[in-house]
């Protein structure tokens, strides 16, 4: 009886190792590939390469899976990891500024990403029973100018180097309001920016705030450095 049990145990171990022993190796390979792709899309390389990764069905799945680990990595490594992965933002109430360590002068407004982000915001509001926002081209211009300014002068903040915030930018443009808010994001794609903002409590509050009635979004493509997004919310008086 004991000999037979030993035989079954040995046979079972051999069978499992032979036919299922590849599973741990496959998991490890998937994790390695995920981090490799995540590293690729976070680097300042040609946009076409990043786009190919995200457009690939397998690549997009692996990168999405790897980004789940960004939060614990940020907790461990702090601002360094925060700037090296695929999404950068600052809290809506934060008065600090992040030095991007680069400047970019070759910029283009990404109207398609603005449209996609606008639709996403209203889908989220509708999902939670909040009235959809109305698009404001005046607010979009303010957002575009701020996104361009951050790229061209190499900073990331709700405050310009001169200390002006979204309220000052609205005042300078002669736009009346009684409530205003701003969300910022730097990401390789609009989908990454959307997921990052909606999963951040402070930014989510702005997106779902029922006191806001209008929005303008400034999406600016910085080429190898990704896309800068500035969401401007108000309840315009006019």
From TrEMBL:
Question: Which UniProt keywords are given for this protein, alphabetically ordered?
Answer: Membrane, Transmembrane, Transmembrane helix
Q: Which Gene3D superfamilies match?
A: CAP
Instruction: Report the source organism.
Output: Candidatus Curtissbacteria bacterium RIFCSPHIGHO2_02_FULL_42_15
Annotated signal sequence range:
none
Q: What is this protein called?
A: SCP domain-containing protein
Q: Which InterPro entries match?
A: CAP_dom, CAP_sf
Write down the SUPFAM superfamilies for this protein, in alphabetical order.
Answer: PR-1-like
Q: SCP domain location, by residue? A: 119-233
A Pfam entry, by short name: CAP
Spell out where the chain crosses the membrane: 20-41
Traced from the root, the source organism's taxonomic lineage reads: Bacteria, Candidatus Curtissiibacteriota
């Amino acid at each position: 009886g004991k000999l037979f049990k030993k035989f079954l145990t040995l046979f079972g171990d051999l069978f499992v190792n032979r036919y299922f022993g590849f599973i741990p190796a496959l998991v490890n390979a998937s994790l390695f590939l995920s981090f490799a792709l995540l590293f690729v899309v976070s680097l300042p390389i040609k946009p076409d390469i990043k786009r190919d990764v995200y457009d690939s069905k397998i690549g997009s799945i692996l990168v999405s899976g790897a980004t789940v680990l960004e939060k614990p990595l940020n907790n461990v490594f702090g601002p360094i990891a925060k700037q090296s992965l695929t999404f950068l933002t600052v809290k809506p109430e934060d008065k600090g500024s992040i030095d991007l360590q680069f400047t970019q002068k070759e910029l283009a407004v990404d109207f398609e990403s603005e449209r996609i982000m606008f639709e996403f915001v209203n889908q989220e509001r509708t999902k939670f029973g909040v009235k959809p926002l109305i698009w404001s081209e005046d607010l979009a211009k303010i957002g575009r100018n701020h996104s361009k300014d951050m790229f061209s002068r190499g900073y990331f903040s709700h405050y310009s180097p001169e200390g002006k915030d979204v309220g000052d930018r609205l005042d300078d443009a002669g736009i009346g309001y009684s409530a205003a808010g701003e969300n910022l994001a730097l990401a390789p794609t609009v989908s990454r920016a959307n997921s990052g903002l909606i999963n951040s409590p402070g930014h989510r509050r702005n997106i779902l705030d029922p006191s806001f009635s209008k929005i303008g979004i400034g999406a600016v493509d910085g080429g190898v450095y990704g896309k800068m997004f500035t969401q401007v919310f108000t309840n315009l008086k006019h």
